[in-house]
Amino acid sequence: MCGMTSDMSPRVRHDPPVVRPTRQDEVAAAGSELIGGPIGRWAGAGHSLLTPVQVVALVAIGMFALGMVQKIPCYDWAWFRGVNSQYTHACYSDIPHLYLGRGFADGLVPYFDRLSGDMEYLEYPVLTGLFMQVAAWLTLPVEGSVQHREQFYWMANAGMLLVCTAVIAVCVARTHRHRPWDALLVALAPAFALTATINWDLFAVALTAAAMLMWSRSRPLAFGVLIGLATAAKLYPVLLLGPLLLLCWRAGRWREYGAAVFGAAGAWLAVNLPVMLLAPQGWKKFYTFSQERQIDFGSFWVIITQRSGKSLETGTVNMLAALLMLVLCAGIAALTLTAPRRPRFAQLAFLVVAAFIVTNKVYSPQYVLWLIPLAALARPRWRDFLIWQAGEVMYFLGIWMHLAYTMGGDKHQGLPPEGYQTAIVVHLAATLYLCAVVVRDILTPERDPVRLDGSDDPSGGVLDGAPDVFVLGQAAHPPWHAAHRPEGPQVEWGAARE
């Protein structure tokens, strides 16, 4: 009886064919001329040696390798021979510096052993600390100078981050099953290659991408576990539970949301509780450091303080940033519950993480990694994506040139404060532009590129095709998609796909 509906009629359902961006996206079609033109009718019909997912993964690995090549001046000498050179060559990385600065070279155990200096303990979440420690264990057998060991530590981390890159590429390619080529946005993102080995953010990004894949496969508990682990590596992934709450509220999917929250809380506690109990001072360092950290590079708060010539108290900035974030989240909530058609999960995930980034008191250049996979799922159009990436690359160059200016002594070779403020504005404007386009897609869902083939929410899992049970405003009328579902074989939008 599993193949019959309640009226004994056969259940017929076919997934949409694979979407080829070169057939839908003018920029993708134009760019494809470099490799022979738009994809042909025989592609993907058993005549290709590689699947789209494999191609995406290989391209991502190749771009990651190019990013490593870009760091060669620093790897060879600039990390070790003067501070300014690593900025003028735009190849800075935290990894080799923290190998010494956080006690890994001395065999200190993160969170348990106290550091010399003001930092006292490692200021990273527990799972990132474990990632760093594993790389230190791999470096332990290496003999030679401190410089040689720092180089090997960076290489060990780069190898582990390369695995994270492959995971991200595969997960994004498989999240929207019939749109695997959208993951090329991630694989070819210039900001991804440039920032991948600055810090350890890719670990949390990989866990988050895997979580998004699990949700798209209607596995809320696995999603929650991965989000909990990602939050144990970086704080931002927990933000995804907010928009998911709104979507599950609108669709009445409380059981699935409860499973996700249970999995997230359980996984986070399983990782954090041992360190929390055995080394409480070291464990809480990340959270106290985040609260006590002053206004730093990349935020619009920097522009305010530099333009006004007045410093702002850290507590005041924390409160104002939190209020701004709450206001933006309230706006996202209103958008979710009043939109004519329920927004896609990836759209809201991108918006809430972007809201956190633009209101935060610091924006490190590697934070762009948080948004790249979400952007590829939320707005898979090359023109808009490349406009945003251009702004991020300009900021990447701007911060290093500004540090070269401030750290270069009396020479002041680099970007002065006014120029750096311009770079910040460009980064913020590019991010807000992409947010505006995503909001436009939510308000006019017929313009959403993911929904052009009649899909509802390929990354939505149990939300995909589910009817609304709670809406506000104009959305209280019959759902937009109820009158626009395609006729024909695809009659069960919310059916399980595996």
UniProtKB/TrEMBL annotation:
Chief subcellular location: membrane
Range of residues in the leader sequence: none
InterPro entries: GT87, UCP010361
Keywords in alphabetical order: Cell membrane, Membrane, Transferase, Transmembrane, Transmembrane helix
Subcellular locations according to the entry: Cell membrane
Membrane-topology descriptor: Multi-pass membrane protein
Transmembrane segment boundaries: 49-69, 121-140, 152-173, 185-215, 221-247, 259-279, 317-338, 345-365, 385-407
Renumbered residue ranges of the record's region Disordered: 479-498
Entries under Pfam families matching the protein: GT87
Keyword Cell membrane: yes
Domain of life: Bacteria
Family recorded in the similarity comment: Belongs to the glycosyltransferase 87 family.
UniProt protein name: Glycosyltransferase 87 family protein
